[in-house]
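Q: I'm writing up a methods section and want to include an example of the input and output format. Could you take the sequence below and give the corresponding predicted structure tokens, formatted cleanly so I can copy it straight into the document?
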Amino acid sequence: AGATAPSNPRFGRWKLKPATPPAEGDKSSNIMTYAPWNGTGMSVQIDTTNRDGVPGTPWGYNTMLDGKDLPVYGRNGTDTASVTPLNDKINVIIYKQGGKLVQILQNVLSADGNTHNISYTSTDAKGETKTTYATYERILK
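A: Here is the clean output for your methods example:
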């Protein structure tokens, strides 16, 4: 019997963990789905719902995990994404618009494979750099 390629530990569905407890009746959510794409690549899709339960426009991109820019769909202000693995737990994602850097993410997969900790670094029109953080928890493999 032939060996099969190992599955990427990032594949599955992940839910954004709120930084603070949501207000009563808040129906907001942010679900990130990673799936196999084009053999050894990965498809990324983000689905959001606002606090009233109204779905946002899904957005995402495909990557061969090789640091090359590929198109982003559904996200205003970003037209390409590139993903470069630093090691088996850390990916660096670069978003661009018109060839210009928009945002850099460092996505760190936990040792147990059940949490993503992401730092988002962007520079505004005034040239000021800001970094924010988010945690996604696995909800489905």
